[in-house]
Every structure is written in structure tokens, then in C-alpha cells.
Write a structure and sequence with these properties.
The chain is mainly alpha-helical. The protein has two helices and no strands. The radius of gyration is 35 Å and the shape is flat.
Amino acid sequence: MVTRNRMTVTAVGLFVGLLAQHATGAEAPVVHKAAADAELLVDAELFRTEIDGYVRELDRQMRATLSEELRRELARKVEIAKDERRTTT
């Protein structure tokens, strides 16, 4: 009796699963397309100038950040060197 109940539940589950698979396979796939944009024309000189300005500003910021980090690291090493010199004399 228990086996029959389990087999029935399993069979019903497989049958519903197969039906669901067929139902999703029968649906037409939805294709999303990008909206048609107007052609965008960019002045090459302006584009180069903007990119060049961006790269220069990024370079300046990176140099400033690296310089600050280097100063912090060197300050720690100088402190350690001072402490070592005091303990050895």
C-alpha cells in the first residue's frame, strides 16, 4: 500500500514535470532589440582633447595618491629606525 502511494506520487510528479517542460518549449522566444538611436557624430579633435584631459587628471590623482602612500610608508620606517638607534646605544 505504501509503495503504491509513493509510486503514484512519483508518477504524477514526473507527468506534471513533462507537461511543464512541453509548455515552456512551446512558447515563442521573446527577442528584445535595442531602440533605434540616431547616428551619433563626434568631432575627433574634441574627443581626443577630452580623453587627453581625463588621462592627465587621472595621472595627477594617481601620482598624488602614490606620493602620500609613499610618505606614510617612509615615515613608519624612519620611526622604526629611530627606535632601533635608541635601543642600540
